[in-house]
Amino acid sequence: MPVFNQSRQNVIRVLFLVAFGVLIIRLLFLQLSSSKYDLLALDNAVSKTIVYPDRGIIFDRKGKSILENTLTYDLMVLPNAVKNLDTIGLCRILNISPKIFHDRLIGSIIKNGKFRPSVFESAIDTETFVQLQENIFRFEPGFYLQERPIRSYPYKAAAHVLGYVGEVDSNILKRTNFYYQMGDYMGLSGLERYYESILMGKRGIRYQVKDNKNRIVGPYEKGIYDSIAIAGRNLNTYLDIELQVLAERLLKNKLGAIVAIEPKTGGILAMASGPTYDPNMLTGSYRKTNFSYMLRDTARPLFNRAIKGQYAPGSTIKPMGALIALDEGVITPSFGYGCGGAYRGCNRPIACEHKNPAHAANLRLALANSCNSYFSHIYRMAIDNRQDRDIRLGYTRWKGYMNSFGMGVRLGLDLPSEDKGLITDTSFYDRLYNKSWNSCTNVFLGIGQGEMQATPLQMANLMCIIANKGYYYTPHFVKSIENEDENDTLLNKFKVRHEVTKIPDTIYNIVQLGMQDVVDRGTAMGARIEGISIAGKTGTAENYGIINGRREKLKNHSWFVCFAPRENPTIAIAVIVENAGFGATWATPMASLMMEKYLRDTLSSARWKEVERIEGTEIILPIVKMKRRRLDSLRREKMKLQVSRMQAHIYTLPKKSDPNKSNEILPVHFEAILKDEESVC
Amino acid sequence: MRNQSAEITKGIDWALVVVYIALVAMGIMSIFATTYRDESVLNGFLSFKTDYSKQLYYFAICGVLAVFILLIDSKFFTATANIFYFFGIILLILVFPFHTDVKGTKSIIRFSGFQLQPAELCKVFVNLALAKYMSSLDLNFKNIKSQLIASALIIFPAILTILQSETGLALVYFSFFLVLYREGLPASVLVIGFAVAVLVVLTLLLDQNLLAIGLTAIAVLFIYLSRKEFKRNKGLFFIIVGIWALCVGIQRFAVPYFFSNVLKPYQVQRIFATVGKDYQVDESTLSEADLKKMEERKKAGNYNVKQSKIAIGSGGMFGKGLLKGTQTRYDFVPEQRTDFIFCTIGEGFGFFGSLILLGLYLFMLFRIINIAERQRSAFARVYAYGVASVFFFHIFINIGMTLGIVPVIGIPLPFMSYGGTALITFTVLLFILIRLDADRQMILR
């Protein structure tokens, strides 16, 4: 049979070739042109889990851990796996309305997509956790519990010192050049922030293979790409947690601060700011509520007065005036000034508390009696000492002394956001007095009033200088870092000894004795402790506030600074209680209790009664209290509204048969908040 | 005995047999790679519980069948071709009352745990019948009537298959037109068919008015170029205008009408998806069931192709290795044992492995064409071209689909895809060819 159309076989061959060519070109494009599909496949099948390391622990000077890591649980949701869910049951356990449930679910889908787990409720409280854990099988696999370590604070103390950790935000991400990742926690304030690099440890990453339903199948490539989480290193501090707790108790119901430093090392033994708060409030599920509440509080519990509160030092600055005059050589310890109840060296007389003659016959007496005239006089002598043509030179020299003492500059302790107080520049007076001013213009600086402000930390540091007879170490909390090596430079600056005067020890002794007289028979007799020689100085700082738009003089701040034992000082303290009147009234007994607790390691029962008395006394300006009350009542109203609204939701649930039961479950959440709230005050 | 076995093996094209075994082996390996789940391998292969062991047993059945076919005299096929064709049509018709609904198809008959898909099997019968018809002595294929009869032989079972909601399988029948082309069907039929297809695609891709303007411009250009011809040939002008009117008519009215009234919305959607467009449809005119189906198909279709592309794309040059493909191992690609089996090769063995597989297929197709051209009888030649066309269509559409250049039409990859009926059908198709080729000295009628 003849074969027709033979040539067409080649057309068909070409057709086949072209078709296969198309497939091969497509394959080339898919498989060899880009790694896009590689990444997509990895993203599909390999889940990258970040293994969070345990943060380092912070120990006090006796090795007690003042913060710990505990486990909390997040309720996670995997939206695409949510099927046949007992929504009502879950809502009841979580105390949320189905509407909120729905909104949150949608929210997490929008945020992370359907196939990735999101946090549905973070840091579940214990009560809910127990209920959830028993019932979680009913909600799986769409919902599951995931553990997450959080901080807990067994002593409920040192909130301001320790700071808090929180989730990083996009600003931090940018600032740290994306070292952190979304969802990471980092120290946001306090020691947690300052020593973040030590405490954070190193994240681990675990790669796991998952299937199309997002179920984990096993380790990816037997785990060769995994990296192990390295726990954060621990910190040993100088902090004495019992002393810290005592300081916080003493400051209860008061506005103020207590700072205690070990003079020989600069180690901070206690640093309290009142009002404070329980650091546990800023962990767990109520963190945001609590934080925003405290942020609005007029008493400002989040404000660390010990390093950010700035007060006129008042008489407590007088020993420093003496040091400057002595170092400048304008006086000797035997220098005396005839004070008749006021300083009349300048136009306006400055009143002095004492009128009896010879109360300022020498330095020691002048210190013991806190003679205003004497210290005004030696301030002027120090400034005018070198007969400069220009007052500015003398003042600048004085300012230099003050700065070297740590006044008007940041000391640089190991907490972030320290304030520097105030020692003004000459330019300030130039502007204010049109360049014609003299030592009389700012003579008030000699007695710690006027253009001068100091933080409690700076005042405690001044005591260290006197206690050490002329030097100090920058105050700091951390004594050592676990496994410290030469790469850890954080602590280096605390090992530098700052020599600030060239005054011989014998003259220092006289200053110290003068201060001891203050306690033994002067204004600070309330500080006396049997068998311990204490050197101290009270102060009363005038202050003004703006109330209803008017500048008004408020009740004086009460200062007391001291160190003990005088012969071989191991503790230096600065105490300030805002608007508490004379220094001797409140600040002195508080410092006394602190010293006794630290030096004797215990307090007698009579002394504990004293602690309770102080603790129970409220010294807060009426205006602050009023504003606070208003805020609280607003908040309560709002919360009541929320509760009733939620109950309304629960009552309208279709399946709900027993309305009493919902009453039982619901308010727990809010009572917990209310309880926490009270511990703020 | 010895004599007989020599008789059987005489003239067999061993190259085809070797390629066949290689492909089936690759298929079983791929199915193993996607469905193996840490069971004992030996047990898994022999248990008949896993898919790869089932495929192995189907292969064994195919082996028996192949030997059986090789034992049959070639004349049997020519003698029974028409009977088988009618048998096949009856099977196809029997499907309508006796089908079992499996995964939305209405094309499967099930009896005592055994599934049969006549639409799949019928390809063999159509091929035989076509060969029989095309080789009849008194046939003049230049005659329009005989062309129509041949087309009818192909189209009738295709229509029955479409009625069983198996559009993909039905399309396979149209590959027989390639055979008709080889046997003398005017090229213009295929060219016109191709041109219409291009026009339809352009209709999808371009704005209606823009395309109409373009077509008009082309028509005007032709009229301008051939203006001198009009004096000699007065009809030419009207032919050009007529073609223009037809084209515009197709793109303006025929295609939209076909899409909105003949095809199901989800099918249209799929066609649109292939050219990378969204199908805009007035949803209020659709029934709820259609809407739901559309939604589902859209999701499934997009998801399948996306995952399949990721799987193949992530294979790179040499692939991730057997059992190492994360996409195929963890069920990211749906239907990966059956229609998307190529992903396993693409991911596990990369461009290199894919090239080897494509090479085997191309070798097989060329080999079949060579075999066809060396036949003395028209029956064997037509049959061989039929086999080549069917294989080609399956391979190109299936792999094209996994690569995302062809719409998702659920047809298996010859010898690779999991499934008994398909494997048996392809085996029978191939071994009848081998049998016929072994007797190529004989003249068959």
Topology:
The complex is a heterodimer of chains A (about 675) and B (about 450).
Chain A: H1 8-32, H2 36-45, E1 46-51, E2 58-59, E3 65-77, H3 87-94, H4 98-112, E4 118-124, H5 126-139, E5 143-152, H6 159-162, E6 165-167, H7 170-175, E7 185-187, H8 190-194, H9 196-199, E8 204-210, E9 216-219, E10 235-237, H10 241-250, E11 256-262, E12 267-274, H11 287-296, H12 305-308, H13 318-328, E13 342-343, E14 350-351, H14 363-369, H15 372-384, H16 391-404, E15 422-423, H17 426-432, E16 452-453, H18 456-468, E17 471-473, E18 478-481, E19 497-499, H19 505-521, E20 535-547, E21 550-564, E22 571-577, H20 587-600, H21 605-616, H22 622-651, H23 659-665, H24 668-680
Parallel strand pairs in A: 2-10
Antiparallel strand pairs in A: 1-8, 2-3, 3-4, 3-5, 6-7, 8-9, 10-18, 11-12, 11-22, 13-14, 15-16, 17-19, 20-21, 21-22
Helix pairs in contact in A: 10-20, 13-15, 13-19, 14-19
Chain B: H1 2-9, H2 14-35, H3 41-46, H4 51-71, H5 74-98, E1 99-102, E2 105-111, E3 114-116, H6 118-134, H7 144-163, H8 167-173, H9 177-182, H10 187-205, H11 208-225, H12 235-262, H13 265-274, H14 288-313, H15 326-329, H16 342-373, H17 378-402, H18 420-438
Antiparallel strand pairs in B: 1-2, 2-3
